[in-house]
Design goal:
Blueprint (H helix, E strand, L loop, with lengths): L2 E6 L3 H11 L4 E7 L13 E3 L4 H11 L4 E4 L6 H14 L3 E4 L12 E4 L2 H6 L7 E5 L15 E6 L13 E4 L6 H10 L4 E5 L8 H9 L2 E5 L9 E2 L2 H11 L8
Helix pairs in contact: 2-3, 5-6
């Protein structure tokens, strides 16, 4: 019987990891998606959609499905899911590893203002109106109703349902990766004065930071929440190596 793996996904890295796992004989992988994206990309492994019912529900699933190892490859800001995974793996008695892309670091010429949370960032938006490009995903866009005086341009993969206070905002539906040229053109076309983003890391959306630097714009950055106490790696190769030591693929014919 193949070694069963569960990947908690939703990121570009999770999709790439699923492709690697699918190509390794002796692994039987399942990719779990939260279901927040209405038009997810095709995946390389069987997909399970929806929540588990917290840490207890996930632990029950791990046991009932004979999962040998758990890989957390969710968004760096999915703090609750990562914490539940850590607890569920402990209860189920199986190894767990987190694949987390390195955070972005400010470079020479950057003008970043960091905030510990999105709530703190919105509170700091008091003052005269500015034109802001917001790239924090559709789930949290409504929070900016707390600072409705600004001219917002919200970009997300899927449509955003904005509250009445933000009825004047512009929404753009696009999926990365984005180029430096396209990001620079976008910011110039909308006369953007500052970029609002989360420190998600990765290359797919890095160009917006480079564009902001080139245009001399301020970047309002939400820093990552605390990470759970589980092993963390930064590459797919490291995940494969972790699994080879803690949950190796079942050898056929043995």
């Amino acid at each position: 019987m193949a070694t069963r793996l569960l990947i908690l996904g939703g990121t570009t890295e999770a999709r790439a990891l699923a492709g690697r796992i699918a190509a390794i004989a002796g692994y039987d992988g399942v990719l779990s998606l939260a279901g927040r994206t209405e038009r997810p990309l095709p995946q390389h492994l069987p997909v399970r959609t929806g929540g588990f019912g917290g840490a207890a529900g996930l632990a029950s699933y791990l046991k009932s499905e004979s999962i040998a190892a758990l890989v957390v490859a969710t968004h760096p800001f999915a703090a609750r899911i990562a914490a539940n995974a850590a607890e569920a793996a402990r209860v189920a008695g199986i190894p767990v590893v987190r694949l987390s892309r390195p955070p972005w670091r400010a470079a020479k010429g950057d003008n970043w203002r960091s905030h510990p949370s999105l709530e703190a960032l919105v509170q700091g938006l008091a003052g005269p109106p500015r034109r802001l490009l917001v790239t924090i995903g559709r789930q949290d866009a409504a929070r900016f109703a707390g600072a409705p005086q600004h001219a917002y341009v919200f970009r997300s993969i899927e449509p955003i349902d904005l509250p009445p206070q933000l009825g004047h905002a512009l929404t753009i539906e696009e999926r990365g990766p984005f180029s430096l040229a396209s990001e620079t053109e976008l910011m110039r076309r909308h006369a953007i004065e500052a970029l609002v983003t989360k420190n998600s890391g990765g290359d797919a959306t890095r160009a917006k930071l480079d564009a902001a630097r080139g245009l001399g714009l301020e970047v309002l950055m939400v820093e990552r929440p605390p990470a759970p106490d589980i092993p963390e790696v930064a590459s797919i190769a490291d995940v494969i190596d972790f699994l080879a030591h803690h949950a190796p693929p079942e050898k056929r014919g043995v």
